[in-house]
Amino acid sequence: MKSYREMTKEELQQEYEAMKQEYRKFQGMSLNLNMARGKPCKEQLDLSLGLMDALNSDADMC
After folding, report:
1. Which of 11, 31, 47, 53 is placed for a possible disulfide with 7 were both Cys, Cβ 3.0 to 4.6 Å?
2. What is the domain partition of the chain in residue ranges?
3. Upper half-sphere CA count for residue 35 (Cβ side, 13 Å)
4. Cα separation of 4 and 42, whole Å?
């Protein structure tokens, strides 16, 4: 494939239409992607629940 700089106006238009069609195909899939990294799952969050109860407002921190 030629680089975009080497393409003629007509070739660029064809490439644009092809990419637009491919984009519409992905839109039609109704994907719901979460690309977050390091997001803990429910089980990992449940492990830390005990820490929330370790100290209360009556605890003597001294």
Report:
1. 11
2. 4-54
3. 1
4. 46
d(C-alpha 22, C-alpha 11), whole Å: 17
Cβ pair 48, 40 in contact under 8 A: no
Q: Which residue has the tokens 């393409």?
A: 7
Model pLDDT, residue 11: 97
Question: How confident is the model over 5-61, as pLDDT tens digits?
Answer: 999 999 999 999 999 999 999 999 998 888 888 888 899 888 888 887 777 766 666
For 21, the token pair is: 């069609």
H/E/C letters for each residue in the chain?
Answer: CCCHHHCCHHHHHHHHHHHHHHHHHHHHCCCCCCCCCCCCCHHHHHHCHHHHCCCCCCCCCC
